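During the no-cost extension, the postdoctoral fellow (Dr. R.K.) reprocessed legacy sequence entries with the updated structure-token encoder. One reprocessed record is reproduced below for audit purposes.
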Amino acid sequence: MALLWKASKDGLVADQVGEANIEVGTNRHDIIRIISVPAKGGVQYALISHPKLALRVNGRAVVAGLQVLKHKDELQFGDRQMFFSAESVPKVTVYRHDGAKRRPHCPVCRAEIEDGQHMVVCPGCSRRYHQIATAGDATEKPCWTYRESCRFCEQPTSLSGQPNWRPDAESIHEWASN
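Re-encoded structure tokens follow.
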């Protein structure tokens, strides 16, 4: 799930981007929406706004109220500043085979991922990795955390639940009082 970083009185705050409206001003047209769009190898995100909203992404005006967003894009509306992060936090899940396709193979150990095994789907490239802790007779397979990043897309492999990217302090302008 993507994040939208905003400055507040408490410092930088990251909100998960959902399909809800985000108010950026006081006028009824001062609303943006960030939606996820299926794309090859994952998802992309698009910003939708009223065509007359004076919104800028990376310093350029949003034309016709539509803009495809990229990781680390800066959004500006008047003196308000936000940063978009396409980063998704990886999570350990239990694999359930649907019976329709071949079972996936872990790109690190090359073994098949079997029903009931713990695994991680890389948020960057959608490859599946084992992430099995030692329990009972199960052999430990920390394939996802074996390296600091995914070997295919460089997605960080931390399982801390915290975002890996934050806007720099130099990038944030004085608008935290809004």
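The chain has no helices and 13 strands. Residues 174-178 have pLDDT under 50 and may be disordered. The remaining legacy entries will be reprocessed before the final report is submitted.
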